[in-house]
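does this look right to u?? flavin-adenine dinucleotide version
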Amino acid sequence: MSLRIVVTVKYVPDATGDRHFADDLTVDRDDVDGLLSELDEYAVEQALQIAENADDAEVTVLTVGPEDAKDALRKALSMGADKAIHVEDDDLHGTDAIGTSLVLAKAIEKAGYDLVISGMASTDGTMGVVPALLAERLGVPQVTLLSEVSVEDGTVKGRRDGDAASEQLEASLPAVVSVTDQSGEARYPSFKGIMAAKKKPVESWDLSDLDIEAEEVGLENAWTAVQAVAERPARTAGTIVKDEGEGGKQLAEFLASQKFI
Ligand SMILES: Cc1cc2nc3c(=O)[nH]c(=O)nc-3n(C[C@H](O)[C@H](O)[C@H](O)COP(=O)(O)OP(=O)(O)OC[C@H]3O[C@@H](n4cnc5c(N)ncnc54)[C@H](O)[C@@H]3O)c2cc1C
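got this back:
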């Protein structure tokens, strides 16, 4: 029986680019360079390693996003994923995490799966909630924030590192897991991988393919709304201490004045 792994990957604005908000207070994704969310590269990497250790496995990458989100799928396919699904629909504009999890859950059910792997958070919304929302909607266990993950005899196992202790966790498949940026370096696509990705299938679905009504997603139907946005104040130069013998004392006084000590 082939192990069906679905990896959720998000297309995000390039953090080095000039990111700004549109008039409707959503992040302006037009004319802004975007890429595969870096934290999702770790999810793709762990999916590929699990597939390489399995007798028979298939890795599908899935994204919900605008036209350009195909670039995120192409990157994951060039890393070695087998196929991709792109859910795109004008009515998805401004969809919140609740709505995104609905679309992802319906797409995952339609694709068929045994294991869903997500990143620990996206690098733009950074909420870190979608994996839990997904598990709830799919009615399966979730094992999140893993720094190590493997699959054996229908069970997903992993290690979650906390400040004081590490936990060994496991769940029967089907299940949802998320992996951290400590789960191991993500491979770089080889030239062969990039060329092969051009031929790999990318299915495009819209809301009607998933029996989702426009009233269930989009900015109008979001459970949270951005009220206002303001430029982050420019960073100040800060206090420069020239150590003429009293540097340590001045530093301690500064830290005390800031209630750091
Ligand atoms: C600056 C900013 C602030 C926002 N604030 C809110 C808010 O307060 N409340 C709210 O409900 N929404 C908010 N959103 C919208 C929210 O980002 C999107 O709905 C998003 O799709 C889900 O949230 P996230 O990116 O934080 O996901 P996270 O929960 O951080 O994502 C975890 C993982 O889920 C998967 N994933 C997330 N989105 C997608 C996707 N579109 N396609 C495929 N996989 C995905 C990825 O594997 C990712 O690593 C905000 C967006 C931005 C850019």
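The mean pLDDT is 94. idk if thats expected tbh
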